[in-house]
Design goal:
CATH superfamily of the largest domain: Topoisomerase I, domain 2
Distance between the termini: 57 Å
CATH architecture of the largest domain: Orthogonal Bundle
Strand content: 15-25%
Strand order of the largest sheet: 2-3-4-1-7-8-9
Helix content: 25-40%
Structural class: alpha+beta
Largest sheet: 7 strands, mixed
Number of strands: 25
Radius of gyration: 31 Å
Shape: globular
CATH class of the largest domain: Mainly Alpha
Number of helices: 22
Number of domains: 5
């Protein structure tokens, strides 16, 4: 019997339905679907994590520079507390005598592979396993995948890339967050991708802040033609523009040339996850995380193919199935589908390219999309699926063809230029809104009187602030910011982070206070600027992340060595630590005791300090006191708040604190309250610090 483990309950249920003959039951405390051949269950996303430093040695609960670098000889795996019961149940299923093999059916990507393998290794399972590798959750796709299961070993390199990524991020995050937090008496979280992302936003905001606007002036004829002289098309002083106007006003203008060329504007490509997130941000103001959430839900509802893809192409064996999908979308836009069918779907190299598809093809609607299913979707899901459908139509249409005429006019030895477009064949533009130019027609040798010349006062503009869309584009096209040509060539199609992680990176830097979201705009905060000013270039520049991505890609392809990647990371961490120790900084502290004392511990009277993730008593690491409060304590988190330093100081000083903006899910409204400490016990019956409301 095979044990099939999916990533989520809904996926396990759908796979069980395709397999057929499965009864729902509980085995070893785990909800399963079972028939004579399969036991089908699921994870709940990640169930296993890498242990934190203090879980190797309690001395690491206190952040001391003398302990750095922290380098686990062997990384420990521990359960994620909230999902411990599910992990235990899956481990029990793996040990059942009747289970002789497993099927990994988590999402077909690096993180999905990591989720299954960590559960498998934590449980100490040695039984053989196969891999279900599909890009769509339709019954047809599931059935085909089950008939063509891969050997589990086929994805060993993918797992090695995933676990190495986790270890690299641990080594950088755990060591450098402590290094800079202690040195600068601040709560800094340093990460391989997030710090480089914050650095881009800080850099852009500083460019804007320091930008000096300069005036310039343009001269236009009443037909829109603008003055130019070679490469120059404006004046730095208005008096020169006024001279041109005076000399040309009411004078005869000659058409010196009228050159017409036929041109095409190619249609947009199919969506990758990143380009979908950019489009959803531009058109609907969606955050990247919001778009991914909707796309993932559509995938689980079988209406969308696998969303976490970095490709904008399909493979050579797909045109027939994609044609069927398009034909099935006549209910959505009959006129557009009929047009595509009559002219033929355009499956050229802009759409079909095997070399541009690795694990997953471009995002596509599936063949079960229908009006009844669309009617059941949420507003976000509807907007996302409509974007994907319309992009499919556009990508398979013909290019937009137009005649472009470039005119040059002359008047009193001054020249003016004008470009005009005339549509020949609208192609994909027929259904996409765009501004057509007013038709202009002149012939060489024509002449007319210049009247109503205009001078336009202009000024140079600073770069635009990042929106989520433009930030995603910058992350995807990080090669344009690299000086190293070889590295630039490598990361050209990889970028900063991955399509699957960019949304979470943006949410992390906002949550940690480095960046704030103002409508569509992402702006750096004072904390973000301070953090960027504190860390070394080697940590915050994109080159380091690009180098790490190269190492991970080499591992995934089989050309790289995980041990080498970890050794390179350790060298980087050690280098940062040594270089910081040799630099004189203001506001440095040498250990946690030199950080700000927030108050006296209510249990033992010891001094209470702020850590990166918690507030703790100085005696906590000595096992003589249990006082430790996480900033994302569940009591606060359930009310959409966190424990701040201000709140903690009040609690330690007065025994209670006023908190504004608690959220009540039951009443769907915010309220203010007074909180106080209350002794509680954890799930193992051990005492812990808790809270209670005192209205």
């Amino acid at each position: 019997m095979r044990l099939l483990i999916a990533e989520k309950p809904s996926v396990a249920r759908d796979i069980a339905a395709v397999i057929g003959g499965c009864k729902k039951e509980k085995i070893s405390g785990c909800l399963c679907w079972k028939n004579d051949e399969y036991v089908i269950s699921n994870a709940l996303g990640h169930l296993v994590r890498l242990a934190e430093p203090q879980e190797y040695d309690e001395k690491y609960a206190k952040w001391n520079l003398s302990d750095l670098p922290i380098l686990p000889g062997k990384f420990k795996l521990l359960p994620i507390a909230d999902n411990k019961a599910q992990l235990s149940a899956l481990a029990s299923l793996m040990k059942l005598p009747e289970v002789d093999s497993l099927v990994c059916a988590t999402d077909a990507g690096r993180e999905g592979e990591l989720i299954f393998r960590l559960i498998y290794h934590f449980a100490g399972c040695k039984k053989p396993f196969s891999r279900l590798w599909i890009s769509s959750m339709t019954d047809e796709s599931i059935r085909a995948g089950l008939s063509n299961l891969l050997d589990g070993a086929d994805k060993d390199n993918l797992f090695q890339s995933g676990i190495t990524r986790a270890k690299i991020d641990w080594l950088i995050g755990m060591n450098l967050s402590r290094l800079y937090s202690v040195y600068y008496n601040a709560n800094y979280s340093v990460g391989r991708v997030q710090t480089a992302t914050v650095n881009m936003i800080v850099g852009r905001d500083r460019e804007i802040k320091n930008f000096v606007r300069k005036p310039f002036f343009k001269v236009f004829l009443d037909n829109g033609a603008e003055w130019f002289d070679g490469e120059i098309d404006s004046f730095s002083e208005k008096k020169f523009a006024e001279t041109v106007k005076t000399e040309c006003e009411n004078k005869l203008i000659y058409v010196i040339s009228a050159d017409t060329k036929r041109k095409t504007e190619n249609r947009p490509q199919l969506f990758s996850l990143t380009s979908l997130q950019m489009e959803a941000n531009d058109k609907h103001g969606f955050s990247a995380a919001r778009t991914l959430l909707a796309a993932q839900s559509l995938y689980e509802k079988k209406l969308l193919t696998y969303p976490r893809t970095d490709s904008s192409y399909i493979t050579e064996d797909m045109p027939q199935s994609v044609t069927q999908v398009v034909c099935g979308l006549a209910f959505f836009d009959e006129k557009r589908v009929n047009k595509l069918k009559s002219q033929g779907l355009n499956f050229d190299k802009r759409v079909v390219d095997n070399s541009k598809v690795t694990d997953h093809h471009a995002l596509l609607p599936t063949n079960i999309v229908c009006s009844e299913k669309l009617a059941e979707l949420t507003d976000d899901e509807t907007k996302v699926i409509e974007l994907v459908i319309n992009r499919l139509f556009a990508a398979l249409d013909q290019p937009y063809v137009f005649d472009e005429t470039r005119y040059v006019f002359e008047c009193e030895k001054h020249t003016f230029k004008l470009t005009s477009r005339t549509s020949v064949s609208l192609g994909w533009r027929e259904f996409e809104p765009f501004a057509e130019q007013e038709k202009v027609s002149y012939k060489q040798g024509n002449s007319f009187i210049a009247r109503n010349l205009q001078i336009k006062d202009c000024e140079t503009s600073p770069p635009k602030k990042f929106t989520e869309s433009s930030l995603l584009s910058a992350m995807e096209n990080i090669d344009k910011r690299l000086g190293d040509k070889e590295m630039r060539r490598f990361v050209k199609e990889r970028g900063l982070g991955t399509p699957a992680t960019r949304a979470s990176v943006i949410e992390q830097i906002i949550k940690r206070g480095y960046v704030e979201r103002k409508s569509k705009i992402l702006a750096s905060t004072a904390k973000g600027e301070q953090m960027i000013d504190s860390v070394l270039d080697a940590v915050k520049n994109a080159e380091m992340t690009a180098e790490m991505e190269k190492l991970l890609a080499d591992i995934e392809s089989g050309a790289g060595n995980p041990d080498f990647a970890l050794d390179e990371t350790i060298k980087l961490v050690k280098s940062c630590i040594e270089r910081e120790k040799n630099i004189t900084h203001e506001n440095r502290t040498e250990n946690a005791e030199q950080c700000e004392i927030l108050g006296k511990c209510p249990r033992c009277g010891g001094e209470v300090y702020e850590g990166a993730k918690n507030f703790y008593c100085v005696n906590f690491s000595k096992k003589t006191c249990i006082f430790s409060v996480f900033k994302d304590d569940y009591f606060f988190k359930s009310k959409k708040k966190s424990v701040t330093k201000t709140v903690m100081k009040a609690l330690l000083t007065d025994g209670k604190a006023q908190v504004k903006g608690f959220y009540s899910e039951a009443k769907d409204k915010k309220y203010d309250a007074v909180v106080a400490f209350k002794d509680r016990t954890d799930q193992n019956g051990k005492p812990k610090v808790g809270f209670e409301l005192q209205f």
